[in-house]
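Per your request, structure below.
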């Protein structure tokens, strides 16, 4: 199960919790099976993200990997991924990106953070992201099915 917004607690799932899981061998692991079982990670809407976003204060954010969204004036400004979300948020603030709130989600296999980030960039169309994303056929197929089932 994916980790809820801002909790980032261990799930008990080695695919999510243990960065070294793939180094010791995950021969029977199927990403499409994991994402099919955890498709809710792909279903967050822009309205939900804006509604649930937290006010940003320097140093906020979890000290682990995940997807984050920057919000400025109730508009989604940027979607990114990071190993340590709190460090990335501080770097964005130092670089002059204007945002007043943020939202993030963890519980995503590390190797697929880029694909999940691309999914949300295409879905949310944040004005500070480049729209040149490659996408992932497996992930998009699972997201499309999950979205149609959720409707």
């Amino acid at each position: 199960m994916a980790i809820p917004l801002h909790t980032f607690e261990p799930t008990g799932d080695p695919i999510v919790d243990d960065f070294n899981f793939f180094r010791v061998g995950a021969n029977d692991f199927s990403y499409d099976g994991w994402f099919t079982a955890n498709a809710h990670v792909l279903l967050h809407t822009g309205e939900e993200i804006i509604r649930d976003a937290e006010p940003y204060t320097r140093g906020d954010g979890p000290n682990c990997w995940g997807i984050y969204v920057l919000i400025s004036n109730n508009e989604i400004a940027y979607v990114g991924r990071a190993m340590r979300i709190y460090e990335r948020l501080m770097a964005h603030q130092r670089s002059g990106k204007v945002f007043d709130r943020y939202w993030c989600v963890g519980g995503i296999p590390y190797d697929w953070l880029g694909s999940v980030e691309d999914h949300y960039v295409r879905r949310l169309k944040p004005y500070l992201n480049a729209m040149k994303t490659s996408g992932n056929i497996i992930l998009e197929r699972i997201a499309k099915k999950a979205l149609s089932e959720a409707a």
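Residues 14-150 form a domain with the GIY-YIG endonuclease fold (CATH 3.40.1440.10).

Regards,
D.
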